[in-house]
């Protein structure tokens, strides 16, 4: 396997998809929690953060205090921040130009779940200059 990869627990994936459906036509967003690795990260859990964007139908912006609380909760649980996730209710199944402009955590995963017909989740690592596609692998149970 070349390039970075993201191992995603089925429960975490199901949670992102469920949140996306619950969000309707608005993008939902949150933090990926698990074990961070340079080559492979493992997502055990997701922490939803309210979308504070002025136009949540086409943008996401994590509410800063809620994002900080989510990150602190992840660390308190002995997990790492693996990256972030958001949905594209009607948009592309890849990072938008706005996603590229607003990415700020080099080396971390940015998962996007698109709902054009059926849910599709892809993930990309932010290099500091561009997104690099990750291999996403769903697993029923993430070993401890």
Automatic annotation (TrEMBL):
The keyword Protease applies. Residues 6-130 form the MPN domain. The keyword Iron-sulfur does not apply. InterPro entries: JAB_dom_prok, JAMM/MPN+_dom, Metalloprotease_DSAMP, MPN, VirAsm_ModProt. GO terms for biological process: proteolysis. GO terms for molecular function: metal ion binding; metallopeptidase activity. Keywords: Hydrolase, Metal-binding, Metalloprotease, Protease, Zinc. It holds the Pfam family Prok-JAB. PROSITE patterns: MPN. SMART domains: JAB_MPN. Its EC number is 3.4.19.15. This is Desampylase. It comes from Halobellus rubicundus.
């Amino acid at each position: 396997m070349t390039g970075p990869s993201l191992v995603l627990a089925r429960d975490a994936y199901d949670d992102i998809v469920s949140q996306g459906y619950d969000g309707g036509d608005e993008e939902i967003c949150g933090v990926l929690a698990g074990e961070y690795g340079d080559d492979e990260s493992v997502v055990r859990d997701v922490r939803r953060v309210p979308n504070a964007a002025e136009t949540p139908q086409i943008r996401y912006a994590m509410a800063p205090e809620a994002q900080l609380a989510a990150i602190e909760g992840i660390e308190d649980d002995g997990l790492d921040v693996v990256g972030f996730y958001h949905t594209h209710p009607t948009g592309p199944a890849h990072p938008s130009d706005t996603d590229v402009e607003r990415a700020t955590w080099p080396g971390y995963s940015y998962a996007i779940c698109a709902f054009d017909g059926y849910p599709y989740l892809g993930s990309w690592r932010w290099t500091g200059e561009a997104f690099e596609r990750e291999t996403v692998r769903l697993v029923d149970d993430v070993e401890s």
